[in-house]
Amino acid sequence: MPPTLDDIDAAMGRIEGGESPEAVARSSPLKRSSIYKYMKMKRETGSITIGKRGAKPAIPDDLEEDLVAWIVAMQCSGWPVERYEVLIKAGKILSYHAGVPRTLSSGWFAGFVRRHHDLTTRVAQQLSHARNSVTKEGVMKCFFDLVKGCIGFACTASDVYNVDETSFKTKGSTKKVIAVRGSKNVWKGEQTDSYHLTIVAAVAADGTPVPPAFILPGQSCETSVLETCPVADAMVSATPKAFMNGDLFDSWLECFGEWKLRRRNARPAVLVLDNCSSHLTSNSLPICEAYGIYIVRLPPNSTHLLQPLDVALFRTFKRKITQGVTQRLQAMNTTTLPRQTALQVAGEAFNAVFPAVGVEKRNKAVENGFRTCGIWPLSLPKMLNRLALAQVNSVRSASAAWLKTKEHVREEVLTLPPQKKGIKERKRVSTNLEWYTREELHASAVRPVKQKK
């Protein structure tokens, strides 16, 4: 283990007390050569510092800090950089610093990430402009709607629900597999979607799942389609394109109300759902009043921030479905699943991700999802905190004084003094039926124009 600064100070104190360097070296972690080195350093500079071990970085520390600040600025601007962009920018900085063209390798990048522990690699989620336009006012309105629904009775975690739909996708993207070393081209059979399948999932804040509902394409479905589904009381219906619509959602509200009467002793319920237009119709209000359901709609395009199903459950649910689909396709040696098998796979994934309350190994993700989103227990600070983090792209602090806008950072490698303004050009030039090249246009724009008397 290398000597610490305390070891060096103790050795220097003994030498100043009259001991010889050789005597100190025999009973100290420092070697004799190191003692003489630190004696010379203290004599010349008046202090002792311990440098970093190993080779010096290609880019000086202060320039690396500027590069880190640029990475933070790009993330705050909604344009997180990739590895190749960092290498290009670092190469430009090094070339400018060294005075000759230089490039950096992947080894430098690995060392750069090790030196700066606040940097790591993440998979960037692509968000549309609408999803980036959630407002504070919309979040606060949603919170007070929740408060209004909960204060009318002795509301508990078992009375707050979240419902949403997700699709059953059997088409997987490219991914890494285990293959024989030296294989030039490894391929796998494509999983094709011959039909669309929508899954309606709902869960209470205490972890109690509502039986799922499946929407198949067409006007009818086979009587045996649910025979192998392992979820008790699972439901199925059909629409022309297997998407939810207002009338079908009203029917689901009635089924949810009947389930609530049987399982919850007719207690009221607060149902949180997104702002999709296919969820509510003019008939929804009488149904909700009849069954004691209070609807709370999330702000538009905010499900990635405030919906527990999206935040904590659907990703795991989709992964379980993908694994089950792959296993079934391999066993059947085909690329398309029958509808009955698809519902069986979805039911198995549902039981794995939405276990019933009281199960020995119950999934805490449901409760954590409601808590994280601030839905239950009700927490306006948590809601606003998620919105604030999303607005700065999850960067908690970025206080570097030199951070500029993303356009300027992309154009300039380092911050330079502003250039002195020359003669101001006019934006338009009178051609007078003559032809101009680009250079002639700029030259004519700076010529003084005779003012009309």
The number of helical elements comes to 16
Average residue-wise pLDDT: 85
Give the topology string: H per helix, E per strand: HHHHHHHEEEEHEHEHHHHHHH
CATH class bucket of the domain at 153-171 and 191-378:
Alpha Beta
Which bin fits the share of residues in helices?
40-55%
By DSSP, the count of extended strands is 6
Structural class: alpha/beta
Please name the fourth-level CATH homologous superfamily of the domain at 153-171 and 191-378.
Ribonuclease H-like superfamily/Ribonuclease H
Q: How would you sum up the major sheet?
A: 6 strands, mixed
Report the CATH architecture of the domain at 153-171 and 191-378.
Answer: 2-Layer Sandwich
Q: Give the oligomer, counting copies of the same chain as homo and different chains as hetero.
A: single chain
Domain HTH CENPB-type: 51-122
Organism: Aphanomyces astaci
GO molecular function: DNA binding
Protein name: HTH CENPB-type domain-containing protein
